[in-house]
């Protein structure tokens, strides 16, 4: 499975570091929504869904967490721990997030507004839909 990690330019000097995010530049879509997860309790695993039509860029701006990604055929585990690195997650990718560090702040940029009807929250349904998608391609 191809994982798209975007290296974000870090502007650093003796004062510290700065990363700028600009849509259609280092963010490969128009940003319509930004949200962030923080204060995730120890041992919690969240996500457990895929999106029908949503592209997101995920950045661990502080701390770290692990991602389990599943495209319906392959699975991969990934550590996000670098504020200058963005994980691009496109449509039809099952995701679970776990092993959040106590200080983890996970920022997500999305190309659409929040829409509960875009979520596939059953893994069985996700597998069925991804099989149909690959047979029509
Ligand atoms: C994703 C992963 C990385 C809103 O009202 N607006 C929003 O934009 C979002 C994202 C969530 N919510 C509400 C819906 C739920 O009542 O916030 C609550 C928690 O959302 P959810 O259970 O979907 O959170 P996660 O951590 O399972 O998943 C989130 C995103 O929903 C999802 O798109 O890719 O983070």
Describe this structure in words.
This protein has 137 residues and is mainly beta. The protein has a single domain, classed as Jelly Rolls, CATH 2.60.120.10. Helix content is 9%, strand content 45%. It is built from one helix and twelve strands; from the N terminus they run ββββββββββββα. The strands form three sheets. Strands 1-9-6-11-4 form a five-stranded antiparallel β-sheet, with no helix packed on it. It has a five-stranded antiparallel β-sheet with strand order 8-7-10-5-12. Strand 2 (10-13) and strand 3 form a beta hairpin. It binds dTDP-4-keto-6-deoxyglucose. Residues 33, 35, 37, 46-47, 56, 58, 95, 108, 114 line the site of dTDP-4-keto-6-deoxyglucose.
CATH superfamily: Jelly Rolls
User: What does the main sheet amount to?
Assistant: 5 strands, antiparallel
CATH architectural designation: Sandwich
* Count of spatially separate domains: 1
In CATH's first tier, which class applies? Mainly Beta
Number of strands: 12
Write the H/E string, N to C.
EEEEEEEEEEEEH
Estimated share of beta-strand residues: 35-45%
Measured distance between first and last alpha carbons: 17 Å
């Amino acid at each position: 499975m191809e994982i798209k990690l975007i290296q974000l330019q870090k502007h650093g000097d003796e004062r510290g570091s700065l990363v700028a995010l600009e849509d259609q530049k280092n963010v490969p879509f128009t940003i319509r929504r930004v949200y962030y997860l923080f204060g995730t309790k120890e041992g919690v695993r969240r996500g457990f869904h895929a999106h029908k039509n949503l592209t997101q860029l995920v950045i661990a701006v502080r701390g770290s967490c692990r991602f389990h990604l599943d495209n319906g055929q392959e699975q991969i585990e990934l550590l996000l721990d670098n504020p200058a690195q963005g994980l691009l997650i496109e449509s039809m990718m099952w995701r679970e997030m776990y092993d959040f560090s106590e200080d983890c702040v996970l920022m997500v940029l999305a190309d659409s507004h929040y829409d509960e009807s875009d979520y596939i929250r059953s893994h069985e349904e996700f597998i069925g839909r991804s099989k149909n998608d690959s047979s029509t391609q």
